[in-house]
Amino acid sequence: MGDMANLFGTGRFAQPSGQPSGQEEAADEAQEAADEAAEEVRLRLAVDGGDVEAMSVLGAMLLRRGDFDGAESHLRAATAAGDRAAANNLGVLLHQRGYADEAAGWWRIAAVAGSAAAAHALGRHFRERGDEPAAEYWLCQSAEQGHVLGAYALADLLEHRGDDTGSERWMRAAAERGHREAAYRLARRLDRRAGHDGDDKAAALAADEAEQWYRQAAARGHRRAALHLGTILEKRGELKEAGRWYLTSAKDGEARAACALGFLLRDAGDTESAAVWWLRAAQDGDGNAANALGALHAERGETQTAERWYRAAMDAGDDNGAYNLGLLCAEQGRTTQAEQWYRRAAYAGHREASNALAILLLRAGDESGAEPWFSKAAEAGSVDAAFNLGILHAGRSEERAALRWYERAAAAGHTEAALQVGMARLRDGDEREAERFLRCAAGGGSAEAAYRLATVLDARRPPAPAHELGEPAQEKSECEEWYERAASQGHRRAQVRVGMLAAARGDVVEAARWYREAAEAGSRNGAFNLGLLLAREGSEPEAVVWWRRAADAGHGRAALRLALVFARRGELAEGQRWADLAVSLGPAEVGERAARLRDALRQELSA
Questions:
Q1: Burial class (CB in 10 A: 0-12, 13-18, 19+), 324
Q2: What does each C-alpha distance from 509 to 466, 485, 515, 530, 539 come to in angstroms?
């Protein structure tokens, strides 16, 4: 996006029409100065004539200008004549000069006379002195007269005291009168309520109201409100408006908004502009933005620059910086340095760093050193660490402990953990629970879980009625759908099973397709079944090719088929060789038939 200080020059952000030029602004300022000088002359003439109101207004004018000596005499004269605004301003002047107690005396006089501003100032004075009851009394006087600053200060005092009801009432009153910080704090309170309210309807109402107050505060230039509003809109998918509020907040100096804007731009494909905003945020101390810059340079192969930004993130207090440095070192084969950075992040409580450190130690053969880090990561909520603990215990045959960690990971949505729990339930004979976990794992994309779920469902379904020629094929059952899902993910046994189901339906082409996929992926059953299909279709030479592949992979029936083919062709020695292999491979039934065939071929050869 470039330097935002120069965006008006780029044309990417159009300058609003009707905006005054520099010369026009200078002319306006000169006119205002002339008007103020004329007003001051008028007031001084009125003061010379004994006009009390003019004394008060002139004193206030000089006070704003910083002419304390000139202001004090006029304010004291107006105060002596009973002007309450002058008494309040005299209190302000004395407070600024360091005479707090004398200022409080004049504020009290003005407040008793009905000045809401003086009551607010007096309330603030007592709060600074630690006299909260007196502060509350005067702030309440100010707030009840409609003074917005009094309402906000009263709300702040009550919040500090723990009076949430009273605090919210006056915070809302200040917000409704345009106090932007009150609007922001009210929004934050409603936002927290929405996040903790068990009633969905009440939570939704609180969230909607919070958004409205964020909008009001953001529209008045509150940069943190603009950040939170952008976050709400981004979560809702309203990215264009979210980007506008992030931009507003970022231009006002909010580093987190600049970082968020960077991620928004990156997701939109504008990496270069994203880097500009991440750079601005990182330079303002945002560790998340520094990490993002590090990742960007790492992707480009600029490892030294990436390392520099990861270190900057770490210096900003972001533990991800140390973790990312560990990842960078691990990718480069710098195991010792990787362990050092993982440890630093892990000791700071970074759960993924704890898991990565444990994996590093485990690969180095230090199982006893790895286990505590897996445990620490898992207890901190790392799903991967919980799953890894399950693997660790399973490797020691500690099945109960392994299952406990697998269940914990599965409850958090870990697909492979759910598969392991499902398989454990199957071994225990708890088919209903097994099905539940297998469905979770299969839904998460596990081909093995889809296959095993299909086998569970397959075992339950009644035998299919014989399919008569001309009858419409039956709709696919749920188990067939799961077999097909696993098969489409490359699961070889599922591919063979889908082929068998297709063959049972009479769909030879579909069956051949799945058998071939399984066979080419190394499935000996797929190769054997493909051979059977080809032989039935009259393609025995090609069938022999696939049976040979299956037999070489240890398939006894394929070896027996080859023995029969070569015996039929009169190639008795070759047939005997395959029969010998079939006897050794089995199973028992195949071994017996192969032995009889081998003996017959041997006799024939010796005759």
A1: buried
A2: 20, 19, 10, 11, 14
Rounded to two decimals, what is the model's pTM?
A: 0.72
- Cα(389)–Cα(401) distance, integer angstroms: 9
One-letter amino acid of 271? T
pLDDT of residue 384: 96
Q: How far apart are CA 552 and CA 316, in angstroms?
A: 62
Write the CB contacts of 604 (distance below 8 Å, at least 6 apart in sequence). 572
Q: Which of 443, 519, 521 is nearest to 482 (CA)?
A: 443
Question: Tens of pLDDT along 450-506?
Answer: 999 999 999 887 665 554 444 445 567 889 999 999 999 999 999 999 999 999 888
64-86 residues labelled b (16+ CB within 10 A) or e (exposed): eeeeeeebbebbbbbbeeebbbb
Instruction: For residue 372, say if its preceding peptide bond is cis, omega within 30 degrees of 0.
Output: no
Handedness of CA 40, 43, 48, 53 (dihedral sign): negative
**CA 3 – CA 279 distance, rounded (Å):** 11
DSSP 484-553: HHHHHTT-HHHHHHHHHHHHHTT-HHHHHHHHHHHHHTT-HHHHHHHHHHHHHTT-HHHHHHHHHHHHHT
* Tokens (6 digits) for 310: 């990861």
What is the model's pLDDT at position 3? 34
Q: What token pair was written down for 381?
A: 């909520």
